[in-house]
Specification:
It is built from 24 helices and no strands. The chain has helices at 2-13, 18-22, 28-36, 43-53, 57-65, 67-80, 83-94, 105-118, 122-135, 141-157, 164-174, 179-182, 187-197, 201-217, 221-235, 240-259, 263-279, 283-295, 302-317, 323-339, 343-356, 360-377, 381-397, 401-411.
Amino acid sequence: MLVGEIIKYYRQRAGLTQEELGRGICSVTHVSKIESGKTPFSAEIIHLFSERLHIDIEKEVNRLENLGDQLHLMHKLIILQRMKEVEEIKRELDTMPIIMSSQYAALYLLLLARYYMLTSDYEKAKMILLQVQRDYPELDPYEKNMLRHVKGISYMIDYRKANIGSYQAAIQLLKKINREEYGNLEYYYHLAAAYQWVNSPVMSYSYAEKALRYFKEIDHFIGAILAESVMLIATSSDNEQDFNEVEATYKRLIYNSEMLNTPDKKTLLLNNLGYQYFMRKDYVPAKNAFQEALSLVPKPSPLYLQRWHNYLKCCFEGKLMRKTELLKKAREGLRMARGLDNSIYKIVFKLLVYKIEENDEKYYLFLEEVAIPYFVSSNSDTTKKRYGKELYEYYVKNEQFEKAVKIADILL
C-alpha cells in the first residue's frame, strides 16, 4: 500500500497520467491497481517506475514507514519544549512533501500549528487550524483531541488579543478532551492557565496540581515550573507567613529556570513576583524584580512594553524615581508603543504620562473619552476593569453619580 501511495504521489507531482507512467512498462489498469494497493506487483515494475519518476523507492518507503514515529516524537518534544530537537525533525519533514498526501497529513498540520504557537507566529498557526478543520472533517480520536487542545491553546496564547471570552471558550474546548484517547495530560496546564485568567483560583489550582504531577512523571522540568507558578498565583495571600512561603517558592523557581537556561520562564516568574510585592506596597523589591524581568525581554516588543510599564508604575507609586526621569521614561514607552503600533500600550503610556504630570483633568477626560471605550470595544477585560474602577471612584468622589452608574454597568 505504501509503495502505491508513493508512486501515485510522485506521478502526480511529475504531471504524468497513469498511461504515461505505464507506457512501455504495463497497462493503465495495472498502474491504477498498484497505486490503490489492489494488486501484487513485481520488483522490476516498481524499479522501472522509480527510474521514470527519478526517485529511490526504498528510501521513500523507509521514510514513510517511520513517519508516524517521527511525528509522535515531535509531539513529545514540543510538549517538553525541546525546541532544538523539534527544529531538527521539522527540517527533515520539510523535505517530505509526500506527508500531505499521506494518512498523517492532519497530525502533521496540528503539530505545525503547535510549533508556530511556540515560535509566536500566531497568524500562521491560526491559518493551519482553519485548514485542518476545512480539509479534514473526519479525524481519528487522537487527532480530534489534539485539535481540541491546539485550538484551545490558540484562544489564549496570543496575550495581545485574548480576553475573558476567549479564555472561557478555551476552557469549554479543553474540557471536551478525552484523556484516555489522547494521553497528553499537558492540557491540564492550559486549563489551569485559562481558569487563572477568568479569576477562578480554585479550579486553576486544581488543574495546575494535576499538570504538575504529569510533568514530574515525564521529567518535564520547565512545565513543572510553569504549573507551580500558576499554583502560586492561585494561593497568593496577604498573610505574612503565607507570603514568606510564596516568596521562597518564587525564588526557588527562578533559580530552577536559570539552571534550565529558560529566560522566558524566568522573566515571567520575576514579573509575577514583582506584582506580588507591588500589591503589598513593598515597592523596592517590586522594582528590583520588575527591572530584572525587563532585562530578559527583547526591546522593542509588546512584552517589553508590558514589563516597562510595570517597572515605571512601581517607581511612580513607590516614589523611587525623580519625576523628570519618570516622565522621560514614560514618554519613551509611548514612543515605543507608537513604533510598534500597539493600541493598548499607546493608551496606557499616555495615561501614565498624564498621571506623572499630575494632570488630573486630562487624565480622567482621556480615560472617559478614549481609554475605556477602546478597552470595551477591544474586549480588553483586564485593563477595562483596572481603569474602569479608577474612573468610577473619580465620578463618585466628584458626585457625578449618573456617570458612575454608567461605568458601573460597563464593569458589571
